[in-house]
Amino acid sequence: MLAAVLWLGNISFNMIDNENHVEAVADESLINVAQLIGCETVDLNLALSTRKMRVGHDNIIQKLTLSQAIDTRDALAKSIYACLFEWLVEQINKSLAVGKRRTGRSISILDIYGFESFGRNSFEQFCINYANERLQQHFNRHLFKLEQEEYIQDGIDWAKVDFDDNQDCLNLFEKKPLGLLSLLDEESTFPNGTDIRLPTSSSSI
């Protein structure tokens, strides 16, 4: 499955008409992906270059443009990878279950994205960085703040550990009514809301 994900990234498309509609190039990449995921090449080509829409009681097949086909290809790769990752975690948990039942102990692993900053950042980077800021605060709160408060209450002599509190950064994301998430939610509910108006609203923060 991992090989299928890698080969998917190599699939390219050819224009088939003047309306920017495309179909996948029937080369080694398409053939290998079809074999690896267990389907016919023609079916994979249709899945990557068309979409089925339900209109009333009828199914309509709509051809995809180049940008739509690329998004479909990438979405399929992400979906396969996510399923593979979940399956792998499930198998690891099953193999560790015997030891956990015997000892009552376990090891937990948290795998998260690192902070991302590109030349052009999308909503995905926004969500990733927000999640990381929230996790960082949780870590700081439990490892530094709460522990040191207990030391004070118990009268323990220790060297105070200073840490950067990222609450101001979190307020930028989530404080109501002028946090970025609130402004985004508000703009999304407007009938005439646009991505152009959002930066104007954000400048008031």
TrEMBL record:
<dbReference type="GO" id="GO:0016020">
    <property type="term" value="C:membrane"/>
</dbReference>
<dbReference type="GO" id="GO:0005524">
    <property type="term" value="F:ATP binding"/>
</dbReference>
<keyword id="KW-0067">ATP-binding</keyword>
<dbReference type="Pfam" id="PF00063">
    <property type="entry name" value="Myosin_head"/>
</dbReference>
<feature type="domain" description="Myosin motor">
    <location>
        <begin position="1"/>
        <end position="205"/>
    </location>
</feature>
<keyword id="KW-0547">Nucleotide-binding</keyword>
<dbReference type="GO" id="GO:0051015">
    <property type="term" value="F:actin filament binding"/>
</dbReference>
<dbReference type="GO" id="GO:0007015">
    <property type="term" value="P:actin filament organization"/>
</dbReference>
<dbReference type="GO" id="GO:0000146">
    <property type="term" value="F:microfilament motor activity"/>
</dbReference>
<comment type="similarity">
    <text>Belongs to the TRAFAC class myosin-kinesin ATPase superfamily. Myosin family.</text>
</comment>
<keyword id="KW-0518">Myosin</keyword>
<dbReference type="GO" id="GO:0005737">
    <property type="term" value="C:cytoplasm"/>
</dbReference>
<dbReference type="InterPro" id="IPR027417">
    <property type="entry name" value="P-loop_NTPase"/>
</dbReference>
<keyword id="KW-0009">Actin-binding</keyword>
<dbReference type="GO" id="GO:0016459">
    <property type="term" value="C:myosin complex"/>
</dbReference>
<protein>
    <recommendedName>
        <fullName>Myosin motor domain-containing protein</fullName>
    </recommendedName>
</protein>
<keyword id="KW-0505">Motor protein</keyword>
<dbReference type="InterPro" id="IPR001609">
    <property type="entry name" value="Myosin_head_motor_dom-like"/>
</dbReference>
